[in-house]
Write a structure and sequence with these properties.
Elements (H helix, E strand, L loop, with lengths): L2 E4 L5 E2 L9 E10 L6 E9 L7 E5 L2 H17 L4 E2 L7 E4 L5 E3 L17 E2 L5 E2 L25 H18 L6 E5 L5 E5 L2 E5 L2 H10 L12
Parallel strand pairs: 1-3
Antiparallel strand pairs: 1-2, 3-4, 4-5, 6-7, 7-8, 9-10, 11-12, 12-13
Helix pairs in contact: 2-3
This protein binds zinc ion (2 copies).
The site of one zinc ion has 6 residues, from loops.
């Protein structure tokens, strides 16, 4: 039977028939603070490759969370997706009927030099650049401000970016409290908040986290 990597302790033995090649992970109960009272939740996360997406289930136990995640997965497989952008301009879309979300549209933002839909490189004035024209990106006259430039990203800034995205995700689930960032000797990252652990084992998970919890305003991500 397939096992899921657990944030702490021995691996969890899956109860559902997850495809062998699919990465799954889960975590024990963490306290969620909400207006209606504090409660405890476990989570189970799956990263299907086809269609490529991220699914998360929650419940009072890992078994329940796995069941929730499994039901979401079955729904994704059976769904004739109808994608919508919601408030995103970068091309990322969400299905109206199930939990599927992915980069499916062309970005709405365009390269300021050639008009090609582009979103990855943006200067301090908010102009976007395609891969060909990113060399023309305007330099920020104020060096204390930092904008996304993946070629020059320092580990410290990257770490802060991950931490900010993780914070958004915790807050979305109603989890409050300080967010702690830990790197293990193997290079995997754990971000912890009120007993809830977010494990980032692969670059792919970084991209997913950063893509899903993208700041709405360029530069916003570096405010604490
Ligand atoms: Zn769908
Ligand atoms: Zn261009």
């Amino acid at each position: 039977m397939k096992t899921a990597r657990k944030s702490f302790g021995p691996d969890y033995e899956c109860k559902k028939e997850w495809p062998e090649e699919m990465f799954v992970q889960c975590g024990e109960s963490g306290v969620v603070f909400s207006k209606s009272g504090n409660y405890s939740t476990a989570f189970f996360e799956a990263f299907p490759k086809s269609p490529s997406c991220f699914l998360r289930g929650e419940g009072s136990s890992i078994e329940e969370a796995e069941e929730d995640c499994w039901n979401r997965y079955q729904k994704v497989l059976a769904c004739d997706h109808e994608m919508e952008r919601r408030d995103r301009k970068d091309g990322y879309g969400y299905c109206k009927h199930c939990s599927y979300s992915s980069m499916v549209f062309e970005p709405l933002t365009k390269c300021c030099k050639c008009g090609k839909p582009s979103y990855k490189v943006v200067d301090y004035k908010g102009n976007f650049y395609c891969d060909k024209h990113k060399v023309n990106k305007l330099r920020d006259p104020n060096p204390s401000r930092y904008f996304d430039d993946s070629n020059k990203r320092t580990p410290r800034k990257y770490k802060k970016r991950l931490k900010n995205a993780a914070t958004k995700r915790f807050r979305k689930d109603g989890i409050l409290g300080p967010v702690k960032f830990k790197t293990s000797i193997t290079g995997s990252i754990k971000i912890e908040c009120s007993g809830m652990i977010l494990s980032l084992l692969f670059k792919r998970q970084h991209r997913m986290l950063l893509g899903t919890y993208k700041p709405k305003i360029a530069g916003d991500e570096y405010d604490d």
